[in-house]
Amino acid sequence: MSSREALHDAPGHSRLKAALVPRDRIAIAKIFIAAACLAPFAIVIAKIAGLASFGPHPVQEILHGMGKTGLNLLLITLAITPARKLTKQNWLIRLRRMLGLFAFFYLVLHLLAYAALDLRLDFATLGTDIVERPYITVGMLAIVLLIPLAVTSTRGWQRRLGRNWTRLHRLVYVCAVLGVIHFWWQVKADIREPLLYALMLAALLGYRAADAWRRRRRRSAVAAAASAAR
């Protein structure tokens, strides 16, 4: 047996290879996901540059495109934990931060498109809209609540905040609810699309509630067994 074959057959090498495969998978997945996430932004840039054509209402196309992309990514971010638990693919959790930051990126672009393109930086009108138009009020609140989540998304902040980090980042569910309400309230007649988003969010929240209930039952059973054994 050659030295190379011996190295490949060594237990240590096998463990190292097993550790590297998920890392490679994560790196490749992140590249493809980042490219997919940037595609809607790249399409808008291409249209602005004249490489493609907008529809009859370019401002609304940009505004709604950025908002819907942000909401899609927010729901996908929330789906990561259920997907990880159901498939037992724990490496999926490593994608959550990137997806969440892309969601925040598009929702900020949605706000900027509204302020700069639709209102032409008329901040007085923007302030009036935030106060007097409920769907804009809840949309603005969602973006404001997402800011601390984006800022504290790093491992450094996770270490600093400890258990409070998890409590803080539960606000993402509030932001998702506000985002769906914002979408629903701005629709004039056909509510089928926002209804679909509401059903998807309800399924994600329902899974989280059921999972939390199961974990509480397990902890109670363990505590009862430990108490009985004394």
Round the Cα radius of gyration to an integer and report it: 23 Å
Domain module count? 1
Let me know the number of strands. Answer: 0
How much helicity do the residues have? over 70%
How would the global form be characterised? globular
**Mean pLDDT score, rounded?**
88
Q: How large is the share of residues in beta strands?
A: under 5%
Unreliably modeled segments: 1-21
Distance between the termini: 57 Å
Largest sheet: none
Q: How would you sum up this structure, described in words?
A:
Helices cover 84% and strands 0% of the residues. By secondary structure, it is an all-alpha fold. The longest helix has 38 residues. The N terminus is likely disordered.
Show the helix and strand layout.
Elements: H1 3-9, H2 11-48, H3 58-87, H4 96-118, H5 123-132, H6 134-151, H7 155-161, H8 163-169, H9 171-186, H10 192-229
Helix pairs in contact: 2-3, 2-4, 3-4, 3-9, 3-10, 4-6, 5-6, 6-9, 7-8, 9-10
Provide a brief overview of the structure.
With 230 residues, the chain is an all-alpha fold. The chain has helices at 3-9, 11-48, 58-87, 96-118, 123-132, 134-151, 155-161, 163-169, 171-186, 192-229. It has one domain (3-214).
Q: What features would you highlight for this structure?
A:
230 residues; disordered N terminus; 10 helices
